[in-house]
Specification:
89 residues; mainly beta; 4-stranded antiparallel sheet; 8 strands; globular
């Protein structure tokens, strides 16, 4: 018999991440819930990922769905604001 995560574990629904200054870093706290980020639209020139204080690695993408674990960072560089959505896991 398959088991499924309790849906009540997700205390919040998806939310919009407000675009601020480019490049914008979206950080997943070292202690806290994991989440995904969807980046679409705008004029994005680069999306890079890092873990902890490590160096950023260019993802080679300008849009997509990115999974962030505790301590991960996503850096989005843009000239026109993209739509960014945070999805709790």
């Amino acid at each position: 018999m398959a088991t499924h995560a309790d849906p009540s574990d997700h205390t919040t629904a998806e939310s919009t991440i407000t675009a601020t200054t480019s490049p914008q870093v979206i950080a997943c706290a070292a202690v806290g819930p994991q989440f995904d980020v969807i980046v679409t639209g705008g004029t994005v020139s680069a999306i890079a990922w890092s873990r902890g204080a490590g160096s950023y690695v260019d993802t080679g993408m300008t849009a997509g769905w990115f999974r962030l674990s505790p301590g991960d960072n996503l850096k989005v560089t843009y000239s026109s604001n993209p739509t960014m959505t945070k999805i709790p896991r």
